[in-house]
Specification:
220 residues, alpha+beta, 2 domains, four-stranded mixed β-sheet, elongated
Length: 220
């Protein structure tokens, strides 16, 4: 039942209530006409029936209204919780983005991911972490093979990679991609010059580990 209908019923109820007391006062008069008295009694009985029906209807209406209010309150509370959760996720993502702005911190993440990956794939005797060369170079990991040591170094060329997808024009994107390619080539040259040392037992090639699938696919 709608709110407007409830208001109409309520006004009708109070109107009948006033009529009821007027009729009751007439019934209490000693000289009331018998025919009128019978009619008034019949009308009073009808009022009593209508009163009970109207009261029950109003009570049911109020119960439904309060139930809907409770449901609305619950929904609003759930929405607030979800909004808070989304806010926490948003803040966490921003914190992660800020964290990844530091090349050193990104390097630490890459090294840790590489370490975990190698530990799952090789026995402890089959690799060395932070392998030192005689010239002072330190490679993130060195896999021990029968043919020699395979150096692996983690690189995370993020700055210009992000600029590719933040670019607002084709020319900006092209410049960012060119800078990204230069970054990758520089990393490859550094790894080649520092860690491919056959005189110290390495193979004649090394690996660059990219701890990001999206960065990897941009390279290939």
């Amino acid at each position: 039942m709608s709110t407007d209908t409830s208001i109409v019923i309520a006004f009708l109820f109070f109107g009948l209530l006033i009529l009821y007391f007027l009729l009751k006062s007439q019934l209490q008069k000693p000289n009331t006409d018998p025919t009128l008295n019978a009619w008034l009694k019949s009308l009073q009985q009808s009022f009593d029936t209508t009163n009970r029906t109207t009261t029950a209807s109003l009570q049911q209406n109020y119960r439904e209204l309060f139930s809907r209010l409770d449901q609305a309150t619950t929904v609003i509370g759930d929405l607030k919780k979800e909004a808070g959760a989304f806010g926490e996720v948003s803040r966490s993502m921003k914190d992660l983005q800020d964290y990844l702005k530091s090349p050193k911190l990104r390097g630490n993440i890459g090294e840790q991911v590489l370490t975990d990956l190698i530990a799952q794939m090789f026995p402890k005797t089959g690799y060395a972490l932070q392998h030192h060369f005689k010239g002072g170079q330190i490679v993130d990991a060195a896999i021990k093979t029968q043919a020699g040591i395979l150096p692996i170094d983690s690189k995370f060329p993020m700055e210009n990679f992000q600029k590719i997808y933040q670019a607002t024009s084709p020319s900006e994107k092209s410049l960012a991609r060119s800078a990204f390619i230069r970054d990758v080539k520089k990393h490859l040259k550094d790894i080649s010059g520092k860690y491919i040392l056959p005189e110290e037992g390495t193979l004649d090639f090394a690996l660059m580990y990219i701890p990001s699938e999206s960065v990897y696919y941009e390279i290939v």
